[in-house]
Amino acid sequence: NAGVTQTPKFRILKIGQSMTLQCTQDMNHNYMYWYRQDPGMGLKLIYYSVGAGITDKGEVPNGYNVSRSTTEDFPLRLELAAPSQTSVYFCASTTPTGTGGVNTEAFFGQGTRLTVV
Amino acid sequence: AQKVTQAQTEISVVEKEDVTLDCVYETRDTTYYLFWYKQPPSGELVFLIRRNSFDEQNEISGRYSWNFQKSTSSFNFTITASQVVDSAVYFCALSNNNDMRFGAGTRLTVKP
Fold this sequence. Notes:
The structure holds two protein chains of two kinds.
Chain A: E1 4-7, E2 10-13, E3 19-25, E4 31-37, E5 43-51, E6 54-57, E7 64-66, E8 76-78, E9 87-94, E10 107-108, E11 112-116
Parallel strand pairs in A: 2-11
Antiparallel strand pairs in A: 1-3, 3-8, 4-5, 4-9, 5-6, 7-8, 9-10, 9-11
Chain B: E1 3-5, E2 10-14, E3 19-21, E4 24-26, E5 33-39, E6 46-52, E7 59-61, E8 64-69, E9 74-79, E10 88-96, E11 99-102, E12 106-111
């Protein structure tokens, strides 16, 4: 069971370049999330999805886009990379139970360390 | 909007001391869930505990214990007899309405 897989693990981008961070999970989880963690800081929610075809903005969505065409995949797109997007990006997934909402533990990927120069 | 505050940015203790990490949250919902995660120096996020808003029972797991008080909107985490391996960043998180928000984290350093 692979859990949540993120690729790539490391990437250096030049200002203005674009890229897609890949995230896939094999646990059939409905809910998926993208967070960014700046050095020495906490996790900020970028976007989340409660199922295929449904996405919502989190706390810091500007400069990013997401899509959710399948339950397994939740890619994060950076269109015009900026130095402020230098961060570690974590993808997570979970599944609601009982009354709904996120009430089970989230499973995290290993992170993607992105540097924009 | 929901919010999690971890006022302690860094804590340093000597091995075998007890330490409490504070977490205060804000939410308008009556149904919500609180979590603690550990991020060791290797960077991965490790789930520690989940608590729902209807269960205010304190929980103990080995050297770890959690004190949930709805009256003060707090969900504090205590490590008893700390060990060097407890050195990590600890995050408190809150979920409701389908998303999950994290606090800024508390960096705990346990010195031998």
